[in-house]
Amino acid sequence: MTRILVVDDEPQILRALHINLRARRYDVEVAATGTAALKAAASHPPDLVVLDLGLPDLDGIEVIRGLRGWTTVPIIVLSGRAGSEDKVAALDAGADDYVTKPFGVDELLARIRAVTRRLGAGTEPASASVRVGRHTVDLADHAVTSDDGTEVKLTPTQWGVLEKLLRNPGKLVSQRQLLHDVWGPEYQNETNYLRQYMAQLRRKLEDDPARPRHLITEPGMGYRFRP
Predict the structure, then answer these.
(1) What share of the chain is helix, strand, coil (3-state, %, to 5)?
(2) Per DSSP, what are the bridge partners of residue 216?
(3) Whether the Cβ atoms of residue 196 and residue 157 lie closer than 8 Å to each other
(4) What mean pLDDT, rounded, does the chain reach?
(5) What's the burial of 156, exposed, middle or buried (CB within 10 Å: 0-12/13-18/19+)?
(6) What global pTM score does this model have?
């Protein structure tokens, strides 16, 4: 059973999400503060976190960074902050998706299903080990190691994008195909997602993110992994 940690300081939202998620057979834990959320995640690691940014003690961005210090668990931000700067900050901190309040429960459930699909997506290639610059990517174990032995942590969504490209070396993967396969068919027009995640992957894997040699943008068409 998928375990979801819901973090929000509004009791009615916590109650509604607890009821709706439990009705769909998710194991649900709730927290009303950032401190309580970090403690809950550490003591009983969730499979997915739904997180409000406007918490009374810690900013949600701080909670994301605290989680990303030790886990790659998927994080869906649920926030009344609709500005693009807030979305970019959350995605850059390590969030996997962003839902703006007010929201429909059906939309949130669709996002949860999309993230869970990413966790189990992919079939194993003939060679599960791929070189990306100074890094070795093990697609079977979902591990990235640099040549000096340092582990590079990726979120599930970052993995979904990277894996799709690495399994198609040298081939153009269209924006629509990436969005469909990684996020789901309902996200095929969300090209801003791809720009954010490609920028994150380049910062982690390319020697010079501004002049990538391996994770290439084909303007107006899509992306390509150049071995």
Answers:
(1) 40, 20, 35
(2) 224
(3) no
(4) 88
(5) buried
(6) 0.63
